[in-house]
Amino acid sequence: MAAKDSDILSVLIANGILGLRKFCLLSSVSKNLLALRDDLSPLGFGSLCPGFSDPSERGEVCRFLANAFERDDAKALQRILALKGMAGRYPFLLRQALQDHPRSNKCIEFLMLCGVTPYCADLSDQAVGTLTAARVTQMIRLKVLSPDSFCEGGRGEKMRPLLNTLIGNNQFQEAEALVVAGARADICNWHSHNRSNVTPPVEAIHTPLHVLVEQIAFNESGPDELSVGERGRQYIEQRKQGLSLLGLLARVSKQAGCLDWTQKGGVKPVLVFMGAQWSPECTALGMACFYQDVEVVRVLSEVTDRVEGRGVQLPFLVLGARC
Q1: pLDDT of residue 68
Q2: What whole-number distance in Å separates Cα of residue 151 and Cα of residue 130?
Q3: Per the domain annotation, does 296 fall within a domain?
Q4: Does 69 map to a domain?
Q5: Residues 32-85: tens digit of each pLDDT
Q6: Rounded to an integer, what distance in angstroms lies between the CA atom of residue 47 and that of residue 319?
């Protein structure tokens, strides 16, 4: 390859527009480009980090990891997990390697040295529902629980951050205790996948911030056995707690570089347009606009540095009844 062509490809890689798969393909063209795989700066392999705001790119990492296990390529595994924020974002890798790739000895040894995914076996779904903020703080203080703990998911989900589980249960104060203790915001729910399709569906990747926006927007007013007044008071109190958590989680997400991560759709009802179900791929702020929740939009707007300009977000800001 001519030096000029190599320089052009180097610039292309440094721009971070290729994505993980194309980066690996192009970097194999020459020895000079191949060396960029060991460069974790924004001029080399580190240029991929901004692209992880896209859910398909976050899912593409799963394919990369599975391929590394298949080839027992511990160097590739070490390289991807060395990227900023990557370690711990993809949980139970050692379990996956032991179950699906038991002969990947180099990868398994490397993952053993990395340590295991934080997991509290004593927290069943029922036990999680009984937690209070004080109990969460106590468990963390006594090192029974890690703020970044994962738990087994439901409805086909293979794994879910405890933070997302608490948010999904409307346990906003308990979730806030986790965030205050240092829980990560740049983690997701992951659905089950098989070896022939190792990339999770885009709509299966839910960040804590997206889960919270959706939960606040669709927060129910309480059990039917409560009086109308009691349900109203419960709704107001839960929403107040949710908005408090939202401000904190949005700031933590910004610090972690995942405030602008996008997600397509969600677990709640979607817009029906001309007889077809449809939902946008958007940031948490865009999702708040899509659900026309003015209070959530206001909280997120105070944290974000830019105005949403893609898809349906601005039209809903202008035309939404509640915005």
Answers
A1: 96
A2: 15
A3: yes
A4: no
A5: 778 888 888 888 888 888 888 888 888 888 889 999 999 999 999 999 999 998
A6: 38
Tell me: pLDDT of 286 over 80. Answer: yes
Q: Which of 32, 50, 68 is the last residue of a domain?
A: 50
In a domain, 196, yes or no: yes
CA–CA distance from 272 to each of 67, 199, 277 (Å)?
38, 27, 5
Tell me the CATH number at 232.
1.25.40
DSSP for 67-103 reads HHHHHT-HHHHHHHHTSTTTTTTS--HHHHHHHH-TT
Looking at the DSSP bridge assignments, the partners of residue 264 are 281
Domain count, the chain: 2
Residues 301 and 201 in one domain: yes
Average pLDDT over residues 166-173: 96
In which domain, by residue range, is 2 found? 1-50
CA terminus-to-terminus distance, the chain: 55
Quote the pLDDT of residue 294. Answer: 93
d(CA 312, CA 77): 38
Q: Tell whether 161 and 32 lie within a shared domain.
A: no
CA distance 155 to 146: 24
Q: Do 276 and 160 lie in a common domain?
A: yes
* 39 & 136 share domain: no
Residue 193, pLDDT above cutoff 80: no
Say if 167 falls within a structural domain: yes
**25-34 contact pairs (CB < 8 A, 24+):** 29/1, 30/1, 30/6, 32/6, 33/6, 33/9
Position 64 scores a pLDDT of 92
For residue 310, pLDDT over 70 is answered with no
Evaluate whether 216 touches 175 at the Cβ level (below 8 Å): no
In one-letter notation, the amino acid at residue 260 is D
Cα gap 160→302, rounded to integer Å: 28
130 and 237, same structural domain? yes
**pTM for this entry:** 0.83
> Which residue, 273, 267, 274, is CA-closest to 312?
273
